TrEMBL record:
Pfam families: OsmC. The lineage of its organism: Bacteria, Pseudomonadati, Pseudomonadota, Alphaproteobacteria, Hyphomicrobiales. Signal peptide: none annotated. Gene3D superfamilies: 3.30.300.20. This is OsmC family peroxiredoxin. PANTHER family: HYDROPEROXIDE REDUCTASE.
Amino acid sequence: MQNQRRLPPEPLNGVDIPGLLATIRLVADQPELAQFQFRTCNEWVHGTHSRSAFVGFAGAGRELKHERFYFADTDHPAVLCGKGSAPTPVEWILHGLAGCLMAGIANDAAARGIRLTKVKCSVSGDIDLRGIFGAPCAIRNGFSDITVTFDISGEATGEMLEALVANSRARSAVFDILTAGVPISVNVRAQH
């Protein structure tokens, strides 16, 4: 037999398992490579409509660029004095939470050798707009409650599938940001 190269296992759930495991080992050995900074630049378009651009980020010890430029618009619906040309900013937060939890489930399932057949989640957030509009009573400006509901199936027991969701929740950056909070600095360069 000729020397044959072993091909990496086929991706499971679309996840490059050898790449995932190599990344985990690499950052365990070189923690400085785990330091990332994600960025966006947002520009006002008109009314309540604005557009963010996602060009690049820093990580793994260097500056990196996305494969292409990504843009995300945000607006308010007409009932909230906007044109409804894009999701609201708070809907993007729900999208970010759903996407982060989904990625965690896919990665964890692949690392554990669990083939997923369906994963779907619905995310809802309750908000009382009187806080945003400056009501005299103490009403929070943001969500008072967020609910995430998963429908998940795969080649594993119910307990194993539930553990995937629990592990994703425990490791989700967005879940952490929303539940533990993060200091935010707001700087202004005003020109006239």
